């Protein structure tokens, strides 16, 4: 038995190393859907991109900065572009503009993405609050040649909630859509259905750890998810999980009794009996997800 245990441990280590190599390759930019724009078209942009060479000071305005991002210079740069695009919805335009003007780092940016810049659009699934598609974004993440720096920062962008890159509009359906990072393995539910035999105990632990980090971050900013189940968790690898679908997400201060909504096996008793949602209800739902990850049931 001891010999078998050692063999399993060695196998686990090999699997983890294989996973790490894959993630490093993704950071290097091998995934076509995350191609970074070539924006070295003007002297002004080149000056801003040189910030990485002198991360303590902006080479353009000489202000002290953090993490290669000069807020005043980039805010001016965004403002110059405002007249060149529109979502045809004033509130959405203002939302994107305010986020761009207030961004203090690359990973806080979202942008207006013309639907024509998305190709190979294909239906994935329909959820409680919308329909999911996958596509290739021709332009990719904006504003740097520094692919490795951008991709490393984007790994932390959503704090284990799926990254949002921008907003677009489907002209055929006349509906607005969020453009988010693509999860190669789909929902956690699908991952468990299709790959449960590949999930070692170490991998199960890593899946649950990443989910805990995401849920903790949601709770720490005073929110509750309210629709937490394995269909609303997606995976970019066998162990890298992200929380998504915040259609019911609300501040804890808005804890009014309301209509019951959710997936019954994951719902807390107080929710089912009284329509009461709290952060503790999310924890109950996580317990059901934990059981599902450990047993596949």
UniProtKB/TrEMBL annotation:
<dbReference type="InterPro" id="IPR051824">
    <property type="entry name" value="LRR_Rcpt-Like_S/T_Kinase"/>
</dbReference>
<dbReference type="GO" id="GO:0004674">
    <property type="term" value="F:protein serine/threonine kinase activity"/>
</dbReference>
<dbReference type="InterPro" id="IPR000719">
    <property type="entry name" value="Prot_kinase_dom"/>
</dbReference>
<keyword id="KW-0547">Nucleotide-binding</keyword>
<feature type="domain" description="Protein kinase">
    <location>
        <begin position="118"/>
        <end position="297"/>
    </location>
</feature>
<dbReference type="Pfam" id="PF07714">
    <property type="entry name" value="PK_Tyr_Ser-Thr"/>
</dbReference>
<keyword id="KW-0723">Serine/threonine-protein kinase</keyword>
<protein>
    <recommendedName>
        <fullName>non-specific serine/threonine protein kinase</fullName>
        <ecNumber>2.7.11.1</ecNumber>
    </recommendedName>
</protein>
<dbReference type="GO" id="GO:0005524">
    <property type="term" value="F:ATP binding"/>
</dbReference>
<keyword id="KW-0808">Transferase</keyword>
<keyword id="KW-0418">Kinase</keyword>
<dbReference type="InterPro" id="IPR011009">
    <property type="entry name" value="Kinase-like_dom_sf"/>
</dbReference>
<dbReference type="InterPro" id="IPR001245">
    <property type="entry name" value="Ser-Thr/Tyr_kinase_cat_dom"/>
</dbReference>
<keyword id="KW-0067">ATP-binding</keyword>
């Amino acid at each position: 038995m001891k010999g078998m245990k050692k063999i399993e441990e060695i196998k686990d280590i090999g699997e983890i190393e294989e996973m790490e190599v894959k993630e490093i390759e993704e950071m290097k930019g091998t995934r076509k859907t995350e191609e970074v724009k070539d924006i070295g078209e003007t002297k002004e942009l080149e000056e801003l991109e040189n910030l990485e060479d002198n991360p303590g000071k902006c080479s353009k305005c000489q202000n002290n900065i953090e993490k290669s991002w000069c807020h005043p210079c980039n805010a001016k740069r965004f403002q110059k572009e405002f007249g060149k695009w529109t979502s045809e919805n004033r509130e959405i335009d203002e939302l994107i503009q305010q986020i761009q003007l207030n961004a203090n780092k690359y990973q806080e940016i979202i942008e207006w993405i013309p639907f024509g810049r998305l190709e190979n659009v294909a239906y994935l699934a329909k959820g409680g609050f919308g329909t999911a598609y996958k596509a290739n974004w021709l332009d990719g993440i904006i504003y740097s040649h520094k692919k490795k720096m951008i991709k490393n920062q984007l790994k932390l962008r959503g704090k284990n909630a799926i990254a949002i890159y921008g907003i677009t509009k489907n002209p055929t359906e006349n509906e607005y859509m969020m453009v988010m990072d693509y999860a190669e393995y789909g929902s956690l539910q699908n991952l468990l259905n299709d790959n449960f035999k590949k999930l070692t105990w170490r991998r199960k632990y890593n899946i649950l750890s990443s989910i805990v980090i995401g849920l903790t971050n949601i709770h720490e900013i005073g929110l509750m998810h309210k629709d937490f189940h394995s269909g609303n968790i997606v995976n970019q690898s066998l162990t890298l999980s992200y929380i998504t679908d915040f259609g019911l997400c609300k501040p804890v201060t808005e804890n009014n009794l309301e209509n019951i909504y959710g997936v019954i096996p994951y719902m807390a008793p107080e929710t089912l009996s009284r329509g009461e949602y709290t952060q503790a209800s999310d924890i109950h739902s996580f317990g059901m997800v934990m059981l599902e990850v450990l047993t596949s049931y």
